[in-house]
Design a protein that fits this description.
This protein has 267 residues and is α/β, with parallel strands linked by helices. 29% of the residues lie in helices and 25% in strands. It has a 5-stranded mixed beta barrel, surrounded by 4 helices.
Length: 267
Amino acid sequence: MYQETADFLATQISEMPETAIILGSGLGALAEQITDATVIPYHRIPHFVYSTVTGHKGNLIYGNLGGKHILAMQGRFHYYEGYTMSQVTFPIRVMKLLGVKNLLVSNAAGGINETFKVGDLMIIRDHINMMPNPLIGKNDETFGTRFPDMTRTYDREFISRMEAIAIQYGIPLKKGVYVALTGPSYETPAEYAFYRKVGADAVGMSTVPEVIIARHAGMRIFGMSVITNEGYHFADDFVNCGDDVVAAANRATEAMTKLFTELIRSI
């Protein structure tokens, strides 16, 4: 199936890209900065599933950003939508077959670190996986080894480059550990407190399955979270709201676009 999808996409792409971006909740507007764009709705792509979540438009975009040919997923697939891990991560292996070497991932996340505020951008330096591992099952040796190393999952050179870019443009960045839960319910106050105690700085419902598959396939990975809610103080009227998450992510689009564009330019 992977090869069939890759063969189809190869007919839509004029030059194979080395870098791909996955745009999470509310961050799809970054795709509007891609020039000479070919937009392919997911429903046209063999074996792709549908993105059903608010803020995920459901398009694969090929074009230019930062002077480079790239692929961008305008919306991702989630385990909580009822998809299997194979379906959630399917696009990553297709990207590998198309020649993608670098995967940039973004997401909206709840802030657990008490110094984080809504609108902060956090470089993901590591993660804690609380979802089913997408590599469970028979290993496909054409993509990677049975037991891939996860010691340096997030590329240190990419992190250093992004930190330098942020300083150049005066954009403040946080750095921390992202914990991935299945969702779709938001976390309880006790759960926020628990994951803070075990070392997480932000929490979300995506990203890590894709990252594991990309790491298995030997890709270089960079990740960034937009902090869209604060999971450490709970007033009597506090509620987590999906619409608020998307709105907060949208407000971060301009800064995210500048940072990702310049990182791609530097690769």
